Amino acid sequence: MQNIIGNFTIQHFQETGSSNDLAFELIKNNQAFNKHLIITDKQLAGRGRYDRKWLSFPGNLYFSTIITVKDLDNIYNYSLLTACILGSTLEKFQIKTKYKWPNDIIFCDRKLAGILLQMQNINKINYLIIGIGLNLKDAPDYAISLKEFNISREDFLEEFTKIFDQYLTKYQEFGFLPIKNEWKKNSYKIGEEIKLSNDKEGIFTDIDDDGNLLLKNDAGKIDKILSEEVFV
Known about the structure:
8-stranded mixed beta sheet; 4-stranded antiparallel beta sheet; globular; BirA Bifunctional Protein, domain 2; alpha+beta; 2 domains; 34% strand
């Protein structure tokens, strides 16, 4: 099923392995293009970073947004950009969230949504797929859902597509700095002691202009962290 919301073409599927994988397949078959949004009711092989399994609960929102980009440099800026888009969308429903580096949305100190970026050059065009899993109705024990807010997928996506366009235009016109500053204002545990998935500990002092986390250890040395995870 296909319809239009704003500048986005929405394609809806009842079931798929992974919405990101399906998005790439549709692109290669000339069935999806820039600003197409692939939604699935159920993912049989949904995953997060490091190929971790993303549990698929009925009523939640699993979707992949397709955009074309000029180059693949600084591509991970889009993870922080997407966090700002999700946070701004949720504020429309009176929900205030925090952004956990590099790709999670936190609500009441628990995971509410996750972001997974994947990219490919197909027919000499750089495609970026932004996969999002949002717990609208249910969540595993370690996470949280928005069940009490009674938000429909349709209402959420209507706001999301409008805000996505606004933020993408801002990023294209003004670069990463405004996005970086907004992300920092809503960052989870910035300025606090944190522990990373590689067992490093220190003060989360900042992010740099490439979106990397800057960690200050006990000796005062600043380490640039490229791809670990902040423990909740």
